[in-house]
Design goal:
five-stranded mixed β-sheet; Purple Acid Phosphatase, chain A, domain 2; globular
Amino acid sequence: MKTKIFVVSDIHYPDRLSKFPDFTGLYEDCDAVINLGDYTSLEVMKYVKGLKSKFFGIYGNMDETSVKESLPKTITIEIEGVKIGLLHGSGGPFAIENRVKQELGENLDAYIFGHSHRSFNKTIQDKFFFNPGAFSDSIHRYGYIYIEYRNIWGENAFVL
């Protein structure tokens, strides 16, 4: 059975995104939702958390205190035998995948992160790295990860 997960990060409402996000049509056929932080407001966090009963979320560096008190900094989950680490990320965009791997540890199959506002979808030394990009940018970026038979891969997507 193939699992499909909606992945979104860096929504930044209302500080960068002027209109409340609407993910209608983007997540309904998914089995779960992952958000990688920088919702900015508790209102957005509650909205994203309510999209699916299977929600995995962490906070980002720009989130208000109420969001940081509601969510962890990192999560490690296992789906269909694939060990996945979630972390918002920090620092500049270059080599962010190395910092994410260092912070989450070596024993994972996949590293899902945000922060850089740059889409990233690559397997490096048998480890999968994925960043959906930023939903707050003028091109609203998000993504999907798929898991089937202990394999994981991603798809970056956007809406204008």
